[in-house]
Design goal:
The complex is a heterodimer of chains A (904) and B (578). With 904 residues, chain A is of the alpha+beta class. Chain A has 32 helices and 30 strands. In chain A, helix 8 packs antiparallel against helix 11 and helix 27 runs antiparallel to helix 28. Helices cover 35% and strands 23% of the residues of chain B. Chain B contains 15 helices and 23 strands. The longest helix of chain B is centred in the C-terminal third of the chain and has 26 residues. The relative contact order of chain B is 0.12. The chains are: A alpha+beta (904), B alpha+beta (578).
């Protein structure tokens, strides 16, 4: 007797199928199969076990409490719920009482019950599902068996009956392609419960099994194919597979690749559920519906008529034999079902059965999916997968009803592929499964599968060092060899357990086809954490074999280690970012092509005027300023242009970017020439002692709009002015403050500037330009309030004087520009909290006083403020209290800059 | 009809021979008397020497003048050595209390412990017959190590088996070795041997405190009672108070072995001796069998241990405790004894139950035999799995569904309707039988008192089967013939009723499966006679007949039992389909 090197099981067909891959003669050395020899003799011979009862596999539910369910051949030959006239145990339903239910469950119903619920098939979402129960109520005893348990027990029974040693060879189980991770996990867990080692079980999607059989057929292996040795292989074509089993019929187009390995070419399919997206393979046709309609044809028109024929006899097997003639009425019946016209009595019967389990409702309709095959299903899949351009290698149909299609439905398939001939072999899937089991067990190329991506939410910091929620890839969308394990290349960090916390909740996100779904899972700790402890997450996943195994362990070795419990998974909202205590990150102005294009003629005119020393130069520059001072929010611009982009209140468009990167402009030469000329002329004016002339002011103002690319001459002049102001008192001009606000970033410069602001606020009754300058510095420059740039005392003074101005304005009932500038500037000062979390503690003075004042303003004088500023007091209070959200951010940053202020 | 009726024979209601409970009629205890009452929520209960019990239902329910009636089995006196006595039992049904009297019940033989050797041949035969049935059910009630795909245990103390397994047990013949029994199993336990031997030599003892007059020089302990006594005595000093005998009341400790654990040990030893003697007596014909010799030797040991010096003073067990004391729970030797005690008690309970409900037990056995015969004779397209209880309950060793089939026979599909399949909570199945009869007229068939119906729908033929218990056929065939004749008359009436009430005409025949306990019909095994006797009965107007199939009490020692049984059943079926 030859050694079994792999086993395939298919319990989705009209009869149980178990195939064994046998070790080829000559490939067996020293008690085991030699991989090199196996590759040389590939494919191995396959032996199909033919000792089972030729009936649809069923599970017979228990009659007494504690009775184990009957599965395998024992269930097939048992009378329980077989639809006999007597005794009540054998009647359908029990005692002919609809309330009592039926104690016989076809395994196709169990498979279907494990599929994602209707409406959720379109994207492989993470949905935690309990193992669905099938039950009945004989003599008032409510008895149930779980679908996964039925399948696992049946697998074990059929394998044992076929003489398979459960722990030895790899076992590939054919499953519906639609079975998602939750369903896979249910099957694997149930297998483990019944003593089938899950590490020895490989779940193989049905279309893939058929494709594998095709790829490994003797006459196809490496026939005239160009291949290289890389694992990913080279693309050689596409294969269209239709599987017509007892549960849902599926059609899938698969990419076929070729690879050179162990001195031969291997063809293998690639499975990519992520790219497939909405082009799902289910056809909404269920084999059991068709079979019921067939069985119903010549028998009494009721459940009692067709049930025993279909599920308690070999009638279906005999009817589906290639040699069995189909009567005209049967052909008509098949065509009616495939045209979405399930006979009325069957529909009624299924509705009755749906009282016992909702899965029967899914069977209760015909489906026209088969007709959509050539026009919609396969082409759409190929478009999604990007395989349309590849040659169509073959169109395959396999499964219980494939012969039936030859008689009744082949024309649809011939439309898809004129050369299509339904194969006589109906057991390709189980053959493919046996081959897959042997290949995986011996590390030979089998198929590749793309992992479903999964992201984990962690608290990290953004580029500016502000706290932010980050989605880190838990599982990368990469392809993995069948049976292989993908492990995260490095642990994910950024999670921590607080002191006293006894569980860790992990929010997860899966984005497929731009659709995000959010879930959260928990892991319990054996005891509450004694201190704050950072954790790291390691992941390993086998594609198509249930959920990933996620290990969470403390960064400090040995404190704790736990496994993520997927059973705790539940739906959740998208995790909300933590409440804000200050305005995070910085505003950015990106150069916009359209805005630049509008400004280009004016820039050329200004350049020309300056080059020619034209008296119109000042006017040209002022014209240019009217465009340069526009920096609207980017998403609003895009909305106006008819594009929908995510709201980002930190992103603006302008003629020149706030980073001063002139190379990013459409015409950097023009901008650079203008900048240089401005610098040159301004320098000359400074040397001539006329920087405050009309032209000098205009040049400095335009230079300021170049942001960090402001001409060096302007920088030098402004630094000189600051030094003078420090010595003689704050007497900076408006235009100078404008340029400082836009273009100053250097820490040294800022350190000199802030004390002047404090002095100015103390002395001046017109602080508007000072406040604007501070606001712009804080808005655009990341470390504007770092301890290096401003001392604690200075920032405290700054806050105190802004507070003082607000108080004064409110007391004077003056709700004009000064108050507006104070209100707009104050929230930006809270950015100091990034460096000093204790800055302006909300329950201490002066913060408490500021909050009270703002509350007073909000409640008493809100309507006296300009409309654009009415939301600011409330938003500022929230920031003060460290409870601000995105809407507060929107209230502060959603304001368009007051144009009047820019025009002078 | 409000008052329950007494039926001497199952079909008596059809023959109008029933009597009301208040009539004081004395029923024939050697036969199969029944009680007929309205099918309602309250079931009739009966007070037995072993406790209160609810009467188990017999046959199918049936309609009569708007009432739903149901027959019930009656018990037999389970006490020993009651020959010749009238068995009186108090019956309660809702508010009604009455007395059921049975005469000529088979007396249970006195146990060997009391030196009795039984009360006669029938008692011994019945005893052996009960043993055989219990053995078979216990065999089926335990899961074999190499079972088939159907074998499984349920949480309700039931075992699921196949009919093939049942046939292997029931259809055995020519047994030439002694049967397996609890005493054999116990005698094989070497740990039990060692335990009992150890206890007989070193039984557990306690120091018991007693107060007695003790010479002054030996006094070690005084308690409050002694001190009070001391104070009351005349005199000033202890010597004066000790009086002329120089003794005072004081506490003394004395070793005592008469403890609960030792009493239970002695009870176990006595029971083992008794069981061993009974086993030897029942299997005297297999004296050379290893099991018999082993049991005999073990019995002798048990008796020796019981009369050992140290256990002699241990008194009898006054009551049977159900909760172990500390040593019985935690002392390894006594824990073993407690386990054995429970097993023997359970065995005795099983025997008591079997004796009380012999008629039900025979019904169970009869059903098994019919099922096994049908299984052997015909093909069942789909398998069925009977459920066997690990312990009996009022004679019942099986759980519904009891009937096998349907069978593919040469006369068409044969459905087996079994009255036990209607046993359900709240009698739902019985009401359903009447409300939605599975075949036309099924709601009237119960009047005949039959236990099973073998039904051929295609040919409208039915064989009514009674599992008929009778311990007093008294050797004359005339007795059985009279019974068959009355049964025939009842079937004729039933036929008429079916025609009249259900407008259906069936070809009915009857089969009485009789346990011929008096061996009035069957002969001894050593004679060259068929083991199973088919007693042809009178014919009905339709041409069919009512037959009796008499089985000897010692079926498994008969050489051609299986062959005869199958042949006879086939003959009966062929007769029906002629």
């Amino acid at each position: 007797m030859r050694t079994v090197i792999g086993v395939g099981v298919d319990l989705t067909q009209h009869m149980p199928l178990v195939a064994k891959a046998l070790c080829p003669d000559g490939a067996f050395h020293k008690g085991r199969a030699s991989v090199a020899e196996l590759a040389r003799h590939w494919p191995p011979p396959i032996e199909l076990h033919n000792g089972f009862y030729p009936q649809p596999p069923v599970c017979v539910l228990p009659l007494l409490h504690g009775e184990p369910p009957l599965v395998g051949d024992a269930a097939a030959q048992h009378r329980r719920a077989a639809g006999l006239p007597w005794p009540p145990e054998a009647q359908v339903p029990f005692s002919h009482d609809d309330q009592a239910g039926i104690g016989r469950v076809p395994l196709c119903a169990a498979w279907t019950a494990l599929l994602p619920p209707p409406g959720h098939e379109q994207s492989p979402m993470l949905i935690r599902r309990a193992d669905p129960e099938f039950g009945w109520c004989p003599e008032g005893r409510h008895l149930t068996v779980r679908a996964g348990q039925m399948l696992a027990l049946s697998l074990r029974a059929f394998l044992q009956a076929a003489g398979v040693v459960l722990h030895s060879p790899r076992i590939a189980v054919v499953v519906p392609d639609t079975l998602d991770e939750a369903g896979q996990q249910i099957v694997l867990d149930a297998c483990s419960e019944v003593g089938l080692p899950p590490e020895n079980i490989h779940l193989l999607p049905r279309p893939l099994a058929v494709a594998l059989h095709w790829c490994n057929s003797l006459n196809r292996l490496g026939a005239g194919v160009d291949a290289h040795g890389e694992e990913e292989g080279s693309r050689i074509g596409r294969l269209r597979v239709l599987t017509v089993s007892m549960d849902v019929w599926e059609a899938l187009s698969l990419e076929i690749r070729a690879r050179w390995y162990l001195n031969r070419i291997w063809l293998f399919p690639l499975r990519d559920r992520v790219a497939l997206g909405n082009a799902r393979p289910e056809l909404d046709v269920f084999g059991v519906s068709l079979a019921a309609a067939l069985a119903h044809q010549t028998e009494v028109a009721s459940l009692r008529g067709w049930w025993p024929r279909l599920l308690a006899s070999s009638w279906l097997h005999e009817s589906l034999q290639p040699s069995s003639p189909f009567f005209p009425e049967q052909v008509r019946c098949v065509q009616a079902v495939l045209n979405d016209r399930l006979p009325e009595p069957i529909q009624r019967d299924f509705q009755k059965l749906a009282r016992h389990h909702p899965v029967w409702r899914r069977f209760g309709h015909g489906g026209s999916g088969l007709r959509r095959l050539p026009t919609d299903v396969w082409p759409e899949q190929e478009r999604s997968l990007g395989t349309t351009g590849l040659p169509l290698l073959e169109t395959l149909a396999d499964g219980a009803f494939s012969d039936l299609l030859r008689h009744c439905g082949a024309r649809w398939l011939r439309c898809a592929d004129p050369n299509f001939q339904p194969p006589a072999l109906r057991v390709a899937a189980v053959h493919g499964a046996a081959l897959a089991a042997a290949a995986i067990a011996h590390g030979l190329p089998c198929y590749r599968e793309k992992l479903l991506p999964l992201e984990l939410c962690v608290r990290g910091t953004d580029n500016y060092g502000d706290p932010v929620l980050q989605w880190k890839p838990l599982i990368a969308a990469t392809t993995v060899e069948a049976g292989g394990v993908w492990r995260s290349p490095e642990p994910i960090r950024g999670l921590k357990i607080e002191k006293g916390q006894d569980r860790l909740v992990l929010p997860l996100r899966r984005v497929v086809q731009n659709r995000s779904s959010f879930r959260q899972v928990k892991t319990e700790l054996t005891e509450p954490s004694k201190r704050e402890e950072a954790v790291r997450v390691n992941v390993e996943v086998k594609p198509g074999q249930g959920f990933a195994r996620v290990c969470i362990e403390s960064v400090t070795p040995g404190v704790f280690s736990a496994r993520l419990d997927w059973r705790t998974m539940e739906e959740c909202e998208e995790p909300k970012p933590p409440p804000l205590a200050y305005i995070p990150s910085v505003s950015r102005i990106l150069p916009d092509g359209e805005m630049f294009a509008q400004a280009t003629p004016l820039m050329r005119a200004a350049l020309s005027a300056l080059e020619d020393n034209s008296p119109n130069a000042t006017e040209c520059l002022r014209e240019l300023i009217r465009l340069l001072n526009k920096w609207p929010l980017a998403f609003k611009v895009e909305q106006r242009r008819g594009r929908l982009v995510e709201k980002d209140f930190m992103l603006h468009y302008g003629v020149i970017g706030s980073e001063g990167n002139l190379d990013a402009l459409p015409e950097p030469g023009l901008a650079r020439s203008l900048r240089n000329l401005i610098g040159k002329q301004f320098g000359e004016l400074v040397e001539a002692g006329r920087p405050a002339s009309r032209l000098g002011k205009a040049l400095l103002r335009v230079g300021g709009w170049f942001y960090l690319a402001m001409p060096e001459q302007c920088y030098s002049y402004l630094r000189t002015r600051i030094r003078e102001a420090a010595a003689r008192g704050p007497s900076l001009r408006d235009v100078e403050l404008h340029a400082i606000g836009l273009a100053f970033e250097n820490v040294e410069d800022l350190r000199r500037f802030y004390p002047l602001v404090v002095q100015a606020l103390r002395n001046s009754s017109a602080p508007n330009h000072w406040l604007r300058a501070v606001r712009n510095i804080c808005r655009f420059r990341n470390h504007a309030l770092s301890p290096d740039a401003i001392q604690d005392a200075t920032v405290a003074d700054l806050v105190a004087w802004v507070y003082s101005h607000i108080q004064k304005q409110i007391q004077n009932q003056n709700f004009g520009r000064i108050l507006a500038n104070c209100l707009e500037t104050f929230p930006f000062l809270l950015k100091r909290r990034r460096y000093d979390p204790s800055f302006l503690l909300p329950d201490k003075e002066p913060a408490a006083g500021i909050v009270r004042l703002l509350q007073y303003l909000e409640t008493k004088h809100r309507w006296r403020l300009p409309r654009r500023l009415q939301e600011i007091p409330k938003a500022t209070i929230n920031f003060m209290r460290r409870q601000a959200t995105g809407s507060d951010l929107e209230a502060l940053l959603g304001l368009e800059e007051d144009e009047e202020q820019e025009n002078d | 009809m409000r008052e329950p009726l007494l039926l001497d024979e199952p079909w008596d209601w059809l023959l109008s021979r029933s009597q009301p409970l208040s009539s004081g009629k004395i029923l024939d205890g050697s036969g199969s008397p029944r009680l007929l009452s309205i099918l309602q929520g309250d079931k009739p209960g009966i007070a037995l020497p072993t406790g209160q019990a609810v009467l188990p239902a017999a046959s199918f329910p049936f309609f009569i003048s708007g009432d739903r009636l149901q027959a019930f089995h009656l018990p037999i006196d389970p006490r020993q050595h009651r020959e010749g006595e009238l068995f009186l039992a108090t019956l309660t049904l809702s508010d009604l209390v009455g007395e059921v009297k049975q005469a000529d019940c088979v007396a249970r033989p006195e146990s060997a412990k009391h030196g009795g050797t039984g009360v006669g041949k029938i008692s011994d035969a019945v005893s052996a017959w009960i043993d055989w049935q219990i053995w078979a059910f216990q065999e089926l009630g335990h899961l074999p190590t190499d079972g088939d795909a159907f074998d499984a245990v349920t949480r309700e103390g039931c075992v699921r088996r196949s009919w093939q397994a049942a046939a292997m047990v029931w259809l055995q013949e020519g047994r030439d070795v002694a049967r397996m029994a609890l005493i054999v199993e116990l005698s094989r336990q070497q740990t039990l041997h060692r335990t009992l031997d150890a206890i007989s030599r070193h039984p557990r003892r306690i120091l018991h405190r007693i107060r007695e007059e003790i010479p002054l020089g030996r006094i070690q302990e005084l308690d409050s009672v002694c001190i009070r006594d001391f104070a009351r005595r005349p005199g000033m000093t202890a010597i004066e108070k000790a009086g002329p005998r120089q003794q005072l009341l004081a506490v003394r400790r004395r070793e005592q072995r008469d403890t609960l654990e030792n009493r239970i040990t002695c009870w176990v030893l006595e029971s083992l001796g008794e069981l061993a003697r009974d086993y030897y007596r029942a299997n005297a014909t297999f004296a050379q069998d290893g099991k018999v010799r082993q049991v005999r030797s073990f019995g002798r040991c048990a008796r020796t241990w019981r009369i050992s010096e140290l256990l002699r003073e241990v008194g009898p067990l006054q009551h049977h405790p159900s909760v172990p004391n500390y040593p019985l729970q935690f002392e390894p030797r006594y824990r073993q004894v407690w386990k054995t005690y429970l097993r023997i008690r359970r065995e005795k309970t099983v025997l008591d139950d079997a004796w009380a409900w012999q008629r039900v037990l025979w019904g169970e056995t009869g059903r098994q035999l019919v099922g096994c015969c049908l299984q052997r004779l015909f093909e069942a397209p789909l398998a069925s799995t009977p459920f066997y209880r690990a312990e009996c309950r009022q004679g019942c060793w099986t759980e519904p569904p009891v009937a096998p089939g349907p069978f593919k026979t040469r006369w068409g599909e044969c459905l087996v309707f079994d009255s036990r399949d209607l046993d359900s909570a709240n009698d739902e199945a019985r009401h359903r039988w009447l409300k939605h009869p599975p075949f036309r007229g099924a709601q009237h068939v119960g009047a005949s008192g039959c236990d099973q119906i073998l039904f051929w729908q295609e040919t409208n033929r039915a064989l009514l089967v009674w599992h008929f218990y009778h311990a007093g056929l008294s050797g004359s065939r005339g007795g059985l013939q009279k019974i068959l004749s009355r049964c025939r008359d009842a079937l004729e009436i039933l036929n008429t009723d079916l025609r009249r009430f259900a407008q259906v005409q069936y070809r009915l025949s009857g089969l009485l499966l009789v346990a011929d306990l008096s061996e009035g019909v069957t002969r001894r095994a050593d004679q060259d006679q068929p083991s199973v006797v088919l007693e042809p009965g009178p014919r009905l107007a339709s041409g069919t007949s009512v037959n009796a199939l008499c089985l000897p009490p010692d079926v498994d020692v008969r050489e051609r039992f299986v062959e005869d049984l199958l042949e006879s059943v086939l003959l009966v079926l062929e007769d029906l389909h002629q």
